[in-house]
């Protein structure tokens, strides 16, 4: 989908379209500089001049759990992005990690579409 | 008019429960109907006297309308606020406002569920949150596990502390013949229970039961002339800051830190005046969070506060004296059962678990994923 087409979509559809195109984008208000996640039509202070910007993709684990089932286990984390907003995600390559650990985003393709997941930032020696 | 103006203006004059635990062969509405009939009878009123209806359930799109039809009511005022398990604490406030405004004269607050015998798992109409769905959180435990993980990291709360909450609940349940989960429970058993969402194991989760509850409120002047001992509305307040756990501003401080102080101010009482504390324990971490946020211990100290039986029978603070959602009853939306226990304690009808001279009880409802927080304070005539 072209940038022009995405710009006509609502915030959820635009976020998902960017992801499908391999881009992790979040919203930022031009007037106040506030970042917003998850995508919506206003910031908490009421700014509506939201623009899509590339997420830095770096963040810190704020909270984490491991869901356990007979079929296997998977972690669910809340990641605080360096832009100051929080998102739910997962670290697919580790069982779990400590709160406060630095992480780095990548886009993963799944049967249900694209999603942002995280790796331990140290792994790449970054 | 402010919150203080509602103090003592209404009273619960009838309370009923039905199907607590397991009620095979009954629908949610049939159980609700039984509880409502008991509450109306307890109030010394007739069904036709009810002209205000407040209902929430997890199995009806329009619970208030379903209740009206089922019971054959023609209310002048009706309300269907659904903020999950905290709905009913909010209904107490709304019913008091409606009564005081003359919009109705006898308010029925009611709930019913047959989730245990119908399916054996939590029934929820909660829709998936699109920004969470790709990560497969389990609703609702993942959210509570995330909060617990954060509380542990920030404050050093331990799984043993969570276990103390579960053990206290069971000890109270063992004094309550109506509680569903009774019998001995050891710390070893709790600590070795199957892990579901780290750090929460099966022992940290509330029960899945059937159950219905209902109460009837009237204006205070009328309450005096009815047969039962009135339990007065002293003050209530709600607070909500988020819907999904990702948007909760701070995972270790709930909106109860706002609803609690407002409710205390409206009621004109402080923490030390509360004889029984009823907090919505969907998971063990809830009890710790709410004791902190409602000011019964400092923020971060909840884990240490619940150690050594402090909230168990014979402890310093009587918390969840029915056995709670953890060991007494949890049909999906537990909030009205908090009120039922507060009423039983203030009326002096709590049997072996009766707290001596219980005059003031706090009911704190929680809804969603630590989302909606509603605090209601109830009292006997002597403290008005």
The amount of beta strand of chain A, in percent, is: 35-45%
What is the arithmetic mean of pLDDT of chain A?
Answer: 95
User: What's the CATH topology name of chain B?
Assistant: Peroxisomal Thiolase, Chain A, domain 1
Most residues in contact: chain pair: A-B, 27 and 28 residues
- Structural domain tally of chain B: 1
- Give me the secondary-structure category of chain A: mainly beta
Using only C-alpha atoms, the radius of gyration of chain A works out to 15 Å
Strand numbers in spatial order across the main sheet of chain A: 6-5-4-7-8
Give the number of helices of chain B. Answer: 13
Oligomeric composition of the shown chains: heterodimer
Distance between the termini of chain B: 19 Å
Largest sheet of chain B: 9 strands, mixed
Protein name (chain A): ChsH2 C-terminal OB-fold domain-containing protein
Domain ChsH2 C-terminal OB-fold (chain A): 52-107
InterPro entries (chain A): ChsH2_C, NA-bd_OB-fold, Thioester_dehydratase-like
Pfam family, one (chain A): OB_ChsH2_C
Protein described:
The complex is a heterodimer of chains A (126) and B (384). By secondary structure, chain A is mainly β. Chain A has 2 domains: 3-54, no CATH class; 58-124, Beta Barrel (OB fold (Dihydrolipoamide Acetyltransferase, E2P)). Chain A is 11% helix and 44% strand. The longest helix of chain A is centred in the first third of the chain and has 10 residues, at 11-20. Chain B has helices at 28-42, 63-71, 87-100, 115-118, 141-155, 159-173, 187-191, 220-223, 256-267, 284-293, 302-305, 324-327, 335-347; strands spanning 10-21, 52-55, 77-79, 107-113, 195-197, 200-201, 210-219, 231-240, 276-279, 360-367, 372-379. The radius of gyration of chain B is 19 Å and the shape is globular. Chain B is 32% helix and 18% strand. Chain B has a single domain, classed as Peroxisomal Thiolase, Chain A, domain 1, CATH 3.40.47. Chain B is built from 13 helices and 11 strands. In chain B, a hairpin with a 2-residue loop joins strand 5 (195-197) and strand 6. Chain B is an alpha/beta fold and 384 residues long. Chain A binds chain B through residues 12, 37-39, 62-68, 74, 76, 78, 86-90, 96, 98-100, 110, 112-113, 115, and chain B through 130-132, 134-138, 142, 145-150, 153, 194-200, 244-247, 251. Chain B: Pfam families: Thiolase_C_1. Chain B: Residues 239-379 form the Thiolase C-terminal domain. Chain B: Keywords: Acyltransferase, Transferase. Chain B: GO terms for molecular function: acetyl-CoA C-acyltransferase activity.
């Amino acid at each position: 989908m072209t940038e022009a087409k995405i710009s006509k979509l609502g915030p959820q559809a635009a976020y998902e379209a960017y992801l499908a195109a391999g881009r992790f984008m979040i919203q930022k208000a031009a007037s106040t500089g506030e970042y917003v996640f998850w995508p919506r039509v206003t910031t908490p202070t009421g700014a509506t001049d939201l623009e899509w910007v590339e997420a830095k993709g770096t963040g810190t684990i704020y909270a984490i759990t491991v869901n356990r089932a007979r079929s296997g286990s998977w972690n669910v984390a809340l990641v605080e992005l360096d832009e100051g907003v929080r998102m739910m995600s997962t670290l697919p390559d580790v069982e779990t990690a400590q709160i406060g650990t630095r992480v780095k985003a990548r886009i993963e393709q799944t049967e249900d579409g694209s999603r942002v997941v995280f790796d331990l930032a140290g792994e790449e020696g970054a | 008019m402010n919150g203080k103006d509602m103090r003592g203006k209404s009273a619960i004059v009838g309370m009923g429960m039905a199907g607590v635990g397991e009620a095979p062969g009954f629908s949610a509405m049939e159980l609700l109907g039984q509880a409502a009939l008991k509450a109306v009878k307890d109030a010394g009123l007739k069904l036709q006297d009810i002209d205000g209806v407040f209902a929430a359930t997890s199995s009806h799109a329009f619970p208030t309308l379903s209740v009206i039809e089922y019971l054959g009511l023609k209310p002048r005022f009706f309300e269907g606020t659904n903020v999950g398990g905290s709905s009913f604490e909010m209904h107490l406030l709304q019913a008091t406002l409606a009564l005081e405004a003359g919009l109705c004269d006898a308010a029925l607050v009611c709930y019913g569920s047959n989730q245990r015998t119908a399916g054996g798992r939590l029934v929820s109409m909660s829709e998936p949150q699109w920004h969470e769905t790709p990560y497969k959180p389990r609703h609702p435990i993942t959210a509570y596990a995330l909060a617990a993980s954060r509380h542990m990291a920030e404050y050093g709360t331990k799984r043993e502390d969570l276990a103390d909450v579960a053990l206290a609940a069971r000890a109270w349940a063992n004094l309550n013949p109506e509680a569903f989960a009774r019998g001995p429970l050891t710390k070893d058993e709790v600590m070795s229970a199957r892990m579901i969402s780290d750090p929460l194991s099966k022992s940290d989760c509330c029960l899945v039961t059937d159950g219905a509850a209902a109460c009837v409120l009237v204006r205070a002047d009328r309450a005096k002339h009815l047969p039962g001992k009135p339990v007065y509305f002293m003050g209530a307040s709600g607070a909500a800051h988020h819907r999904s756990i990702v948007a909760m501003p701070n995972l270790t401080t709930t909106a109860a830190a706002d609803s609690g102080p407002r409710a205390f101010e409206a009621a004109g009482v402080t923490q030390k005046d509360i004889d029984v504390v009823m907090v919505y324990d969907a998971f063990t971490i809830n009890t710790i969070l709410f004791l902190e946020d409602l000011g019964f211990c400092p923020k971060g100290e909840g884990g240490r506060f619940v150690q050594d039986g402090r909230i168990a029978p014979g402890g310093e603070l009587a918390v969840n004296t029915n056995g709670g959602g953890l060991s007494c009853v949890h049909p999906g939306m537990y909030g009205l059962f908090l009120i039922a226990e507060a009423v039983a304690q203030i009326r002096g009808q709590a049997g072996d678990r009766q707290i001596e001279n219980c005059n003031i009880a706090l009911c704190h409802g929680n809804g969603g994923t630590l989302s909606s927080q509603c605090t209601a304070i109830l009292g006997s005539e002597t403290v008005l």
